[in-house]
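Worked example

This section walks through a single chain of length 322. The input is the sequence exactly as stored; nothing has been trimmed or padded.
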Amino acid sequence: MKEVVFDVVIIGGGPIGLACALEARKAGLTYLILEKGALVNSLYNYPVNMTFFSTSERLEIGGVPFVSNNPKPTRPEALEYYRRVTTSNGIRINLFEEVKEVKQEAGYNKVITTKSSYDCKNVIIATGFYDIPYLLNVKGEELKKVKHFYNDPHYYAFQKVLVVGSANSAVDVALETYRKGAEVTMVIRRNEIGDRVKYWVKPDIENRIKEGSIKAYFNSTVAEIREHEVDIQTPEGIETIENDWVLAMTGYQPNLSLLEKIGIELCDDEVKKPTYSEDTHETNVKGVFLAGVICGGMNTHRLFIENSREHAVKIVDYIKSK
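Given that input, the structure is written out below as tokens.
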């Protein structure tokens, strides 16, 4: 006997996945969200003290007001907001259930997970990009002292910390651990701090580097990591420094292998933008849609919550019209 057939199965329980569920619910469609981690898992994995670049109203979904203490909300405020959205709307979501495969069978899509399988007419993939870090690809990266995700600065108090990167995450990590007593060194591939760094934070990190409170190696890369040392390739040659922890804040990438496995075509260039209609967001695989950051492929700086909320409306309007 065939299982319940949903109008829509949504892969990813982040803000855009929730927005898709709200639109499906409003349209009277049956739906289910499948999320491999916690609710809004990417936001949960953000640093504890993170403040968003966007204002609270730009993070709203489904027309539900987001009220924060300050114009730019914090991570705890965002988590509370999306929990309340989920609870107050009775959103149907299965957490800690990872999608492994999507097959097309007899006019339906079969979504196969780590726990079960679900038949549905349409699939919306809204998986974001925070799960797979860019690796340094250097000797010693496998050591336990090397971290690609960062949570709380207290853990690194009074330790020798090397931060790799110059974007928002790296700058936040460097400043927070420094202010908890860590001896912080930064390795920056470019000749300056990233131009996308939050405008109220950029002068802070630049001044800390200028005064010598945080040591920075510009135009440099990590050459090798050892248990108690790190080799840094600088323009002047190899510099070896003592080290307890390496925090590689080098960015993250979307799970494009899942798209390829489903049969979604990717552009044959370094961006690897998936093939989909800008009007409907349907991919070259009939009945499979993309929403949110995943639409940009490797270009993860093009789409955010505030400018991809509309994807949910476009997709659900099209599904309903069919």
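What to look for: The mean pLDDT is 93.
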